[in-house]
Amino acid sequence: MNSSDSALVTAASAGSELLSFASKLYPICRSITGNGVRKTLALIGDQIDLKQHEVPSGATVFDWEVPLEWNIDDAYVLDAHGCKIIDFTAHNLHILNYSEPARLSVSLEDLRPKLHSLPDHVDWIPYRTSYYRRQWGFCLRHRDLTALQPGQYQVRIDSTLAAGSLSYGECVLPGRVKDEVLFFTHVCHPSLANDNTSGMAIATALAAWIGGQSRRYSYRFVFAPGTIGSLCWLKRNEHRLARVRHGLVLGLLGDPAPLTYKFSRRGDCEIDQVVPYVIRSINPASGTIAFEPYGYDERQLCSPGFNLPVGRLTRSVNGGYAQYHSSADDLNLISADQMQTSLEACKRIVEVLESNRRYLNMAPKGEPRLGKRGLYGSVGGRSPADRERAMLWMLNQSDGTASLLDIAERSAISYADTRTAADELAAAGLLKTLEGPKPERAAALSRRRPASRVRPLRAQGRKDKRKGEK
Known about the structure:
It is built from 13 helices and 19 strands.
């Protein structure tokens, strides 16, 4: 087996492992609190060093309050013949998430307002929640709803709403510096494969990979329920948020759509330059969308009181694919290949963040003689080779303001070749490595993105209806 064959086998194996782990997470009935989240965190903790945090019910979190803890054992509806027409044990989307306990007999007329379906997709079960309003309800296929006959129905919901806590997990990987790269993924959805067992599986695998690498930055992975979970994390970590230099919210990374990056609220952070560059290098069909205060936990991380340098990486956006928030978002929607490519994108993003530096040309007056340093071809009169061209670009642009990625984008030379040229020139004493944030000139350069590559926001968040307030 040659090296390329070996690489393909390794990639296929990694994709299969990602899909296998997502399959273990998929059946769990999760919500914003409860044992489903804890079981999920326990599985993730089997893969990486994960610390679990608990925030008590009733705790004030900025303008919010941690709700009562919700757990459920069983729920069903019986028709007049004693047959189960809706059964939570058959699919956990059948229950309105956070339904209060109920045992009663109701007529079809009184039951119907408590039933949720998708008329446009008659064989799909919708995912619905009611976190902050006490009620009960069921979700079912529209085909089954239209078949219901008048009569009395028996409703049973064995759930609890009691003082408890909200759980979230955190994996911290110290680096040579205290500056942090933050990865956040939501763990509150029940049996939805793309949203978000795919994000949890990829974040877990990425943390495991980074843990085995030499690293400059420290890395913090947060696995938390959406909205209220990220707010809890922000509340408990306000004192260290200044360390966050880069961040990404991960989710919806297993479906067939190209990768999509959502810019941070600032729009000109280094992460806003790095991610579009990386995902376009993987697939030119990858795109970007502007920041908007809808979506997932970037809404909280990028709220004006924090304004963290955090973007979001998905494939399809929330609300942007037909199966979103329905039983059709199952394991058939995600694939090992798509998840492996998503993980590879995350790894490359980390590699660029780790290596992206600014340099200062130590011989800036004219071109230094590369030949006498063994860095240039011995025959003149022809165009410099790609390696030499990359060196000339590095020398020309290294005035202390432009980063490696700035130079790679301006020269249209690959980041890998630009980085190799920088390493060779630094080894020859012609470049000096600079640390610290980019000056304004280089930051402005990173904002020069072709407008044609920025996709419109489409339906992002419109169908989500601020899920934290349902």
